[in-house]
């Protein structure tokens, strides 16, 4: 069992500070990735309100790295599963304390798997293979969740998400992804709603599940009042979550509240100027309003 330092809590601010410190060294960046995986696998080491921000920022790490060089470096580490020297360097920079050999193997395979699924090549099948290797070495709720993300079928995804929840009943992201499978793959909307509710119950800062539950209310149950409430909660928890602004804009458009819809589309685009869906929604709405104006003047 790993002994956790009592003062080790990763926040999104400390994540960004560490990232700036390691940005000029691929070796240090790989060590940082291992450290973040360790924290994601031990939720008590994460600042609760920052969990989803940290996970999102973690995934984006791989798109900013040199894929070939990082793959080569992680491949070398796979041959030794983090040596004692690696651990000494890690502990000097990040408070991981001490891992067993199998835990080192677990986190190294996890890092390689995330590079494969989030990096330049996007190889889900190979990522799934390495996550299975990680789980053979050492089981964590986060590893089961991660394999569920890249599993090839809805059945396998659901099995892994349920395994994740069995190991950690508070794993909000696993509940969210489980709900998505029951909603979109199995069309079991009542079950999906139950899992979204559990995601939010165990993690009230889960702005992603609020957004997804809003979509379920709006598109599956035609309950726009509940949808608006959830969109507002999602935005309140993360004002920079452009998806929720865009989705609330769609809801307002369907309610013929065009001024509010346009304002939400504009805000989504202000947050992410490359957000194609919001850009298209804004253009469609402006075209529609111009046609209404022409008809009104006839």
Explain what the structure shows:
With 298 residues, the protein is mainly alpha-helical. It has 16 helices and no strands. Helix 4 (67-78) packs antiparallel against helix 6 (101-118) and helix 10 runs parallel beside helix 12 (207-219). It starts with 11 loop residues before the first helix and ends with a helix.
Give structural attributes.
298 residues; mainly alpha; 73% helix; 0% strand; globular; disordered N terminus
Map the helices and strands.
Elements: H1 12-22, H2 26-40, H3 51-61, H4 67-78, H5 84-93, H6 101-118, H7 124-137, H8 141-150, H9 154-167, H10 172-185, H11 189-202, H12 207-219, H13 224-237, H14 242-254, H15 258-271, H16 276-296
Helix pairs in contact: 1-2, 2-6, 4-6, 6-7, 7-8, 8-9, 9-10, 10-11, 10-12, 11-12, 12-13, 12-14, 13-14, 14-15, 14-16, 15-16
- Structure class: mainly alpha
Q: Could you give the distance between the termini? A: 77 Å
Task: Output mean pLDDT.
Answer: 89
Helix tally equals 16
Let me know the number of strands. 0
Subunit arrangement of the protein = single chain
Supply Rg. 21 Å
Which range does the strand content fall in?
under 5%
Broad shape: globular
- Indicate the percent of residues in helices: over 70%
N-to-C series of helices and strands:
HHHHHHHHHHHHHHHH
Instruction: Report on the biggest sheet.
Output: none
> Which consecutive residue ranges, at least 5 long each, have pLDDT under 50?
1-6
